Amino acid sequence: MVCQKALFLTALVAFIRCNFALLEQAPKIPTKIKESERIRSPLSFQFDDLTVSLERGIGRSRAVWECYRMGIDPLWFYDESIADSQLDDSVHKILKQQGREAKSWTRDELKMLITAKRREQGLGKAALESLRKVGGESIEESVATIRDISMARDGTTKLLVRLVESGFDVETVIIPWEETGRSTLCISSQVGCAQGCTFCATGKMGRLQNLSSDEICAQVFLARKVCRVLDINPVDGVVFMGMGEPADNAANVVRAANVLTSQDQFGMAQRKVTISTVAPTPDAFMELGRANTTLAWSIHATTPELRKELVPTTKYSMNELRQGYLDALKSRPMKLRTTMLEVVLIDKINDSVEDADHLAQFVQEMIDEVPGMKPMVNLIPFNDIGFQKFRKPKVERVWAFQERLTSRGFKCFIRTTRGDEESAACGQLATKRKRAE
Ligand code: SF4
Fold first, then answer.
1. pLDDT tens readout for residues 175-188
2. 141, 164, 188 — which closes off a domain?
3. Which of 62, 235, 271, 283 has a Cα at 20 to 30 A from 96?
């Protein structure tokens, strides 16, 4: 959940200009992709579609994905006219402006990295030409590029990602974990959000744009590049908890999520990719459940009055939403019935032990209906971001809430607040400039 609108006028001009350009050069769209699922880059093609599009067997598409996985663009990597120093140019330029330096990878070092697990097979001129025909220019020229990188003291790293077509920016947050040596990436599915949750910075912006599946995948590509260059723990998990409500852009979210978990593509474990929805409708769960990922419900409250106060766009009763959630879970294979319920805890709004009791009761009744359901409750202490009405909960109240749930046998975690000072924490994802407006 993050956005920006300070750039609105500039973006509008860019948007109009880009759309005229697109009229002249219509993108090649693989079959089976609906008009609503805009796609411009092979980054979000299904692997088989890419193989067919590149002709001559599976070797080319594998070589392309060996690069994408490491945040390397194959169009540049295999083009001998591009110097080594240009391969990660977008990151180095930003670091230079900030007076920072980082590792410059040589092609030989990168080659070792991308071919470590397979027999080397590069892309020749004909293959590069096919790739260009399919997806146009490089990802950073045609889909999205990095505009800014900021790192909090705890290592949480926020990327400001510019969408090439519209000129809008979204924020993508890398959260490194010391214990595992890996990072989780929090990505955005929309610019802004129409759900208007009263505690959320993104909700104040309204919805400005749905991201295409390749714009969603590009956030992962760019994050992997940044992790490699800045030597941050590599990203092996993704949460759709950035800017936007995934159910309001379900087709693109599901397509992108399946690219993340495809073993031929980003290759992430299904349990390590989580799509979180506030559930604008009961059907939202079923739609998002089509992706082979963990499904999460940002429930925030179980009583109708409080939920309406926190998520004012709620149009359905808790019973109707609950039924949609249960139907979606029942339709999933057992291994995908592990699910998360998320609660942003706000001081004296929804953080009492009575609130915890209501939630426990609500969850217990669902477990009784879905065989194999494994719920985890994720508590997200609200971050103070200048909202007058809401405050950060006291730590003792958060612990008491957790204790109440664990004492009734539920797995319940408190999400550590990360990246506070860089506005990279939950509910803060709207650019500072946008908030100033
Ligand atoms: S918290 Fe609510 S307003 Fe904010 S991004 Fe999520 S669904 Fe949208």
1. 999 999 999 999 99
2. 141
3. 235
Distances (CA, A) of 406 to 135, 161, 210, 357, 370: 50, 39, 38, 11, 20
Is 27 a residue whose pLDDT tops 70?
A: no
Q: What distance in angstroms lies between residue 64's CA and the mean position of ligand 1's atoms?
A: 35
Range of the domain at 385: 143-436
Lowest mean pLDDT among 201-215, 355-369, 413-427: 413-427
Q: Coil, strand, or helix at residue 269?
A: coil
Query: 3-state class of 174 per DSSP?
Result: strand
Quick one: which atom of ligand 1 is closest to the CA of 276?
A: 6
422 to each of 257, 395, 429, how far by Cα in Å? 27, 21, 10
- Ligand 1: distance of its center to the CA of 307 in Å? 13
Query: What digits encode the pLDDT tens for the residues 134-163?
Result: 887 899 999 999 999 999 998 999 999 999
CA–centroid distance, residue 168 to ligand 1 (Å): 18
| Per-residue pLDDT, 436 | 37
CA 189/CA 186 separation, integer angstroms: 10
Q: Which of 87, 115, 141 is the last residue of a domain?
A: 141
3 flagged as catalytic = no
| Distance from Cα 202 to the centre of ligand 1, integer Å | 6
Decide if 426 is catalytic.
Answer: yes
Out of 66, 165, 171, 422, pick the active-site residue.
Answer: 171
pLDDT of residue 148: 96
Find the CATH number of the domain harbouring 355. 3.20.20.70
Structural tokens at position 119: 């027999």
* Binding pocket residue ranges, ligand 1, CB within 6 Å: 1, 193, 195-197, 200, 202-203, 243-245, 278
The total number of structural domains in the chain stands at 2
